[in-house]
Amino acid sequence: MLAVTRSLAVYGIDSYPVEIEADMSLGLPTFTIVGLPDNAVREARQRIRSAISNLGLKLPGKRITINMAPAGMKKEGPGFDLPIAVSILAASGILSPESVRDHYFVGELALDGSLRPVRGVLSMSDRARRERHSGLVVPLSNSREAAVTGGQKVFPAENLESVIEFLRDKSTISPAVWSAADPCKPTGAEPDFRDVRGQEFAKRAIEVAAAGGHNILMIGPPGSGKTMLARRLPSILPPLLPDEAIETTKIHSVAGLLGREDALLRTRPFRSPHHTVSDAGLIGGGAIPGPGEVSLAHNGVLFLDELPEFRRNVLEVLRQPLEDGRVTITRAAMTMTFPADFTLAAAMNPCPCGYFTDPTHSCNCTGPQIQRYLNRISGPLMDRIDIHVDVAPVRYRELSSDLPTGESSAEIRERVVRARETQSKRFAGLPGVHCNGGMTSSLVRNFCRLDREGRALLRSAMDLYGFSARAYDRIVKVSRTIADLAGSEEIGPSHIAEAVQYRSMTGNLYR
């Protein structure tokens, strides 16, 4: 007897339908799974046998063959346990073959028949919605995540027994419902800029970076507050839009980083990998490629502390995502593209000992040592970072003062949001461009026209500091953002002067 059920598999951050055929025929009692299953799928045989047996059911002593189509696509993970079990029950006559055709099934089986959560359910739910099927049966722990997209019924099940009862009498499981008045609103638990004393220049640079989606590098001695500033960058970014929240949550769901209560990410991600991370860990990889840190930071911030300590080959793989906002991983059997549109925030010391620019500590490094340290970061990578800012040590009187510490993140965010709204109107109708940092060279020429005085100022800066052509575009983009923060339609000399300052502050270190 033949029975067919449907499931879903993750490919990148999207999913595709998988048809599972179960055939029972005369012969020796064997259990075979075909269709390019990985080890986790092949091991489903033992889990399914035990789960069905512990429900008090007995399978006929026949030859069981499971085919997973399309057969040319690799199937991985334990999420196929439930659909395979359901197809076997239908093929053996315990369930009606017609009753299992109208739903998608996803879930891992425990030996007692209970259902455990799986990765990537949000992507599967989104695909089920587009396929317009009757519904999606998922483990109870995945129900809130699966219900986020809406548009299709999500049936949460605790165990295999409840699934069997549901397929016999569809009134036994109520569809899951997820709703939130403002699902993308920040929780208010983020670190606040009000906690940062002093560092007004660095705060301003971070505000500009947030307003235009620019990458930023902070250089300063140990203890000057670089990490503290970077961790507060997400608190001034605009709230996640619903589409951004769903796309970001998909990535975290596929990576298995979404908690049971985190049906939808409410704040922009902040990823801070250790400097020992591999290139595969940063960019993504594996036999079947998975998302790396750059994709987990999508729509948020990727913070690289102690930038020169990262291996050079690891840093060089950042070039593609910094330019394109996505990363493509190629393996022998497949090629996958993951979104990676993030704001890069990096921090580093000016020299190996860290005190080259510190007026209160003497630096023990020689000139060649400092140059070798700085040369760990390539020129092309430095060119892709729009804003370079020196972070000076905080003075005692600023730390000990009882006066108000400065603006809160909420106050800064208001200005950032206004600037981003201006940019959204400017780039309306241009796919893939949402802020000034994403402008191409042609868009820079169209939207960032300079007057005679501004061109003369920028020409002098180019001659003085030896900026590259890429650095020229970066300076003009930052100038456009500074003008947006000021509410100015035109880019003035003062805006260009401030943007040049963000490139020249560390220029002497690299001369």
Describe this entry's structure for a reader.
The chain is of the alpha/beta class and 511 residues long. It folds into two domains: 2-168, Ribosomal Protein S5, domain 2 (2-Layer Sandwich); 193-401 and 410-510, P-loop containing nucleotide triphosphate hydrolases (Rossmann fold), CATH 3.40.50. 37% of the residues lie in helices and 16% in strands. The protein contains 21 helices and 18 strands. α20 packs across α21 (493-504). The protein is elongated, with a radius of gyration of 28 Å.
Topology diagram in text:
Elements: E1 2-11, E2 14-25, E3 31-34, H1 39-42, H2 44-54, E4 63-69, H3 81-91, E5 103-105, E6 108-109, E7 115-116, H4 121-131, E8 135-139, H5 143-147, E9 154-157, H6 160-168, H7 200-212, E10 216-219, H8 226-231, H9 242-254, E11 270-271, H10 279-283, E12 284-285, E13 290-291, H11 293-296, E14 301-304, H12 312-316, H13 319-324, E15 326-330, E16 335-339, E17 343-348, H14 367-374, H15 379-383, E18 387-390, H16 396-400, H17 409-426, H18 441-447, H19 452-465, H20 469-485, H21 493-504
Parallel strand pairs: 3-4, 5-8, 8-9, 10-17, 10-18, 11-14, 14-17
Antiparallel strand pairs: 1-2, 2-4, 6-7, 12-13, 15-16
Helix pairs in contact: 2-3, 7-17, 7-20, 19-21, 20-21
